[in-house]
Structures are given as structure tokens and as C-alpha cells.
Amino acid sequence: MKKIGFLSFGHWNPSPQSQTRSASDVLLQSIDLAVAAEELGADGAYFRVHHFARQLASPFPLLAAAGARTSRIELGTGVIDMRYENPLYMAEDAGAADLISSGRLQLGISRGSPEQVVDGFKHFGYDPGEGDDHAQMARDHTARFLRAISGERFAEPHPRPMFPNPPGLLGIEPQSPGLRERIWWGAGTRATAVWTGEQGMNLMSSTLLTEDTGVPFHQLQAEQIRMFRDAWSEAGHQREPRVSVSRSIFPIVNGTDRAYFGAEAGSRDQVGHIDGGLARFGKSYAGEPDQLVRELAEDEAVAAADTLLLTVPNQLGVDYNAHLLDSVVRYVAPELGWR
């Protein structure tokens, strides 16, 4: 059995060819797609977070709204850039959204991806300082956020408060029980996956790794997952960790599918440069369901993960993306033993 969800980048574009021509379109359609995914039997609705771009940027209003419209499906992010976040304010937002959804949030966080602007986090008021490391700033923000959602009490109460306080120091409210165990770190390398396991966060791995050893992407990612699980065990964490991987999977079951994605058949890994270093990009899977079953059965990282996130072309609209999800759940997942 494997949990299957979608991951939307939340693009919008005023082009006549786009079904999402405004931010309003993307937000409302994201909620509708979460509802549709739940009705189809999928397990998760996840959303990317990007700043200074025509994409989804503020996840918590969206997660709360989707939580109010659904009852079973997991709701998450992939990922929130912690360089931009006030960890205490984020803890309040996350706690509230998780309570609205009755404990269904699965928050993916990380240092973030390459930006649209230079040092965008500085515009949000966060500067690591001269010679400081913005990646370490993201980890520092994360540590403060994790302590806050775990119930840390650190603030001295006012001697004349507006309302009576409980005894002792105060912490962030509201608290949502179990949220700490549903935090994921988006790891782009094997070393970061090891750190993630040591910290006791779940592992979220995408269709990109910012390193390359010459082996196929799925094998490199499977090695990353093994190293994460080893680090988790060595750290002595008691619960079983979760691992998600993202894939672009397009079953071709009608002419529209073929027109959109027929050219993706035979896709291969790609190697490129990100932030000055080599990176390996995983291939897309496009083809008739029996072909996809054969190809996905050989994907070692998909086999090792408990959660599969399907990247969806959100600008094609809710109906078409619901069709894609249904095709995977109906024709591909049962043949691979995921359902």
C-alpha cells in the first residue's frame, strides 16, 4: 500500500491557454482539486510555496480552507522556504490550520529552491549577516519553529495581563497535538537527508537532487532514502519515519492525454547546473497504463517511499487534473500493489 497525492506548483498566467489566469483562480481551484482528489480516493493534496512569483505563496489560508472543505485527505506543502519565515508566527498559523483540518497537516519545509529575486528573504526582514550562511538561518528558524509547536514555554508573563495566565512561562498558542511528527524536510542531497533523519523529521524528496554520481536518478534517490532511514535508526527515534518522493506521471488513456503528453514518452534523466553545482533531474513517466506499470515497477525510490506525490499541470484546470489523478489511482496503482 502507498499513499498517493498530488503536488501543485500553483502557477497562474493571463494567457488564454491557461485555466488559471489569476491568483484567485489558482487558490479556488486548488481547494476544488483537493476536494476532487479526496472523492477519487487519493490521499494527499500538497502545494508548492514560492515568493515573488505568479505561484502559490501563502500556504496557511489555503490549507485551512481546504481542511474545512475535506474530511480525510492529507494537506501539505512541498516546501515552505524557512529563510522567509517568522518561526513563532508560523507556529501559530500551522497550529490553527492543523486544528481546522483535525490533524491532517503534513508540512514540508526546507532551505528552499533557487529564488526569483536576489536574497528575497532580506525583503521579509531576515538577514543572516555578513559572511553568515542563509542555509543555516533556515535551519535556525526551523529549530525555533519545532520547539514552538512542541510546546516550549519561554515567554515571561506580564505582571498585569489583560487576561489571567496559567502559572509559569507561556508558549505559542494554539497547540495542535501530533503536529511535530508531521513535519517533513525537503532534502536535495544525501547529506541533507542524513541530517533530516537525525532531526526526527520525515523525508520529502522531489524530482531533483542537487548532486550527481552518474547513476540513474531513481537509484541515487533510493540511496538517499536508505541513508535517511539509517540516520533515523542511529538517532534512536521511536516512531516509524515517513518518506515521500515526487514524480511526473501521465497515463495516456484518451486522445487529450496523448495530445498533451504523448511527446513525453521515452523521457530520460537530465543533468544540469543549479547554484553552481551539478544536479540530476528525474524523468517523466508518460504512456499507456501497462507501460507505466512496467516502468514504475523498476523505480527503486518509488518502491522505497510510503508516499508518492504526483506533480500536476495545474494550469490545465481542475477537471483535467482530476482525470489524471483518477487514471493513476484507477489503472496504475492497483497493478503495482499500491491499492
From TrEMBL:
Protein's UniProt name: Alkanesulfonate monooxygenase SsuD/methylene tetrahydromethanopterin reductase-like flavin-dependent oxidoreductase (Luciferase family)
InterPro entries per UniProt: Bact_Lucif_Oxidored, Luciferase-like_dom, Luciferase-like_sf
Molecular functions (GO terms): monooxygenase activity; oxidoreductase activity, acting on paired donors, with incorporation or reduction of molecular oxygen
Keyword Repressor assigned: no
UniProt keyword terms in alphabetical order: Monooxygenase, Oxidoreductase
Organism: Nocardioides marinisabuli
Pfam family, one: Bac_luciferase
UniProt KW Oxidoreductase keyword: yes
GO CC, alphabetical: cytosol
Domain of life, source organism: Bacteria
Location of the Luciferase-like domain: 9-258
Gene3D superfamilies: Luciferase-like domain (3.20.20.30)
